[in-house]
Write a structure and sequence with these properties.
alpha+beta, 99 residues, 1 helix, single chain, elongated, four-stranded antiparallel beta sheet
Length: 99
């Protein structure tokens, strides 16, 4: 399992690479809303300052016993570039190691 914040951070890094790859390309794609549907485990700590963590569950992974329950959540993210109101464009080119 991985924390939801890490999943979103990894997605941000991938999108940032795609935006960078679009520089100077003739063919680009406008980046619209991103919809994620995830299975998450809600884990509540038993400490005095109880905190709930959202952990993304791998497909086929068993969630351990304890104070963990699994839920499905849907998120819609609308990507923007800091300081810009222009549409975000990404390249259709794959990195050499992604082909």
């Amino acid at each position: 399992m991985i924390e939801l914040a890490s999943v979103i951070g990894d997605l941000r890094e991938e999108l940032d690479r795609a935006v960078g790859a679009a520089e100077g390309e003739a063919l680009r794609f406008e980046l619209g809303p991103i919809e994620l549907e995830l299975s998450v485990a809600l884990e509540r700590s038993a400490q005095a300052q109880a905190k709930v963590r959202f952990l993304v569950v791998d497909s086929g992974a068993d969630v351990g016993l304890g104070k963990t329950s699994t839920q499905r959540i849907s998120l819609t993210l609308k990507p923007t570039l800091a300081g810009s109101h222009r549409p975000v464009a990404v390249s259709g080119n794959a990195e050499p190691n992604e082909r």
